[in-house]
Amino acid sequence: MRRILLAALLAATSLATANAGDILIHGGPIHTGVDAAPTAQAVLIRDDRILFVGDLKSAQAQAAKGAQDIDLKGAAAYPGFVDAHAHLTGIGLRELTLNLDQVKSVAELVAMVKAYAAAHPDGAIYGRGWIETHWPEKRFPNRADLDAAAPGRIIVLGRSDGHASVASSAALAKARITAATAAPAGGQILKGTDGQPDGMLIDHAQELLEGVIPPPGEALKREALRKAGQLYASRGWTGIDNMSVMADDLALLRDEAVKGAFHIRVDNYMDPSGAAEVLAKGPTSDTTGLIRTRGIKLYMDGALGSRGAALLEPYSDAEGLGLILTPRDQGLALMKQAKAAGAQVAMHAIGDRGNRLVLDWFDETLAGDKAARWRIEHAQIVADTDLPRFAKLGVIASMQPSHAIGDLFFAPARLGKHRLHEGYRWKDFLTAGVVVAAGSDAPVEVGDPRIEFYAAVHRHSLDGFANADWHLDEAVTRAQALKMLTLAPAYAVFREKELGTLEVGKKADVTAFSKDLMTVEPKEILTAQPVLTVVDGKVVFQRQP
């Protein structure tokens, strides 16, 4: 899959935007996302708006002389796909540092670190992307593994979900983490049988490593943002909801867009440390219209894989109820500021206890204001009694379909079979009238719209595996999946009147793939190649024939 994505990037004719003007798209099935007229023969774009959707002859008759003619040659077009939850800087940095998202064992992790250390003999080593749930060793990596790979080197490797890291002995020593070090609230320092830290730091305990790895400088961050924008355009994404954004990253992103070096839409939800502007002014947009700031991103609990998700009952495979990462007083104070400013709150919640608490806090703060469109990010494990509260409170379920097809290999062990029906409840949410906006959580996941669509409609692993524990009845229809990746993300950022469907007068954002995701066999979804990405009436990616 990774090779396919890189090939797509290299095969692009250009990632620079073409001149605005008339663009006629035709020559393949066009799915509009409009229930009353779900398909069309052609879409005509003028400047940044859709001028016509319908039959080809009428579109040709209205097109200006010299219009850019794009023949899909059998490929299928859709409203622009939007990743409703991802981390833009992290996506770019993953491509520029030690990327561990394909590591399949502790042994392979050690080999990769060893090779990277040999190629980079100086300085600290940072990487991200590993996840141990499929590894044959059936354990987390530890400091002994890293010490064996590169003795004496400072090494910190982040788990794919960002909720845990493993550090070498040298890194622990520099951070002064010892057997006597107390874990901060909302964090854990895992220890070996000898009582010494084994290198694994969970959630807020990772903050103890601050300064051990030099933070990326401005030049590297700029490169990362450009790389992420280019990569996402080449995958067919026209927009992204950018989560946990730092103030300096937002400033760089705005600058890159003004310079014409960034071309997809970004709606930013700020980390509390950088949220002063949005909490004072409310939602804003830059001069290009591409970079907007919507609200703040908060964390209620940790991740299921590292047992940090907050559960109502203890984990089935270990002691404990998980972690609460935001104190109640702090969370409610920030929510009240956001409400006063008209800013959205997006809060991470994975466990059933975590989701219940977020709903409680939202209910207390919003006081019946369903129009605020506050969001719960992930909403992975939700108790039966809490699911209807999403619709009652007007809360958006911002979910990542790919999480299910990864997590369901280990979720039965974490939750026990009696709670599995609470997990990854896309269909139940939709049936209850809840808006489900789909995303990827990249760089936690790959960040590929094909994977998210496939997971939503098929609910099998990428190699076709599933069993009774996976609750295949929670898979959604293709029409529902399309809305989850197009219209629902538009609604989630108050832009459903401008984006999310191919309709006359709306902004011209279009995604096209070589195969029709609405009709091909599920496994074929993963092999459909991105062929065209249009944002604001400009071609930002087009694959060569």
Largest sheet: number of strands, sense, barrel closure? 9 strands, mixed
Estimate the mean pLDDT confidence: 94
Silhouette = globular
Gyration radius over CA: 23 Å
Question: Residue ranges: pLDDT <50 for 5 or more in a row?
Answer: 1-19
Percentage beta strand: 15-25%
Structural class assignment: alpha/beta
Straight-line distance between termini: 20 Å
Number of strands: 23
Q: What percentage of residues falls in helices of 4 or more residues? A: 25-40%
What secondary-structure arrangement, pairings included, does this model have?
Layout: H1 2-11, E1 22-31, E2 39-46, E3 49-54, H2 56-62, E4 68-71, E5 76-79, E6 81-86, H3 88-96, E7 98-99, H4 106-119, E8 125-130, H5 143-149, E9 155-159, E10 164-167, H6 169-174, E11 187-191, E12 197-203, H7 218-235, E13 237-245, H8 247-258, E14 265-270, H9 276-281, E15 284-285, E16 291-299, H10 328-341, E17 344-349, H11 352-366, E18 375-378, H12 387-393, E19 396-399, H13 401-407, H14 411-415, H15 426-431, E20 436-438, H16 449-458, H17 478-485, H18 487-492, E21 510-513, H19 522-525, E22 530-535, E23 538-542
Description:
The chain has 545 residues and is an alpha/beta fold. Strands 6, 13, 14, 15, 16, 17, 18, 19 and 20 form a nine-stranded mixed beta sheet that branches. The longest helix is centred in the middle third of the chain and has 18 residues, at 218-235. The model is unreliable at 1-19 (pLDDT under 50).
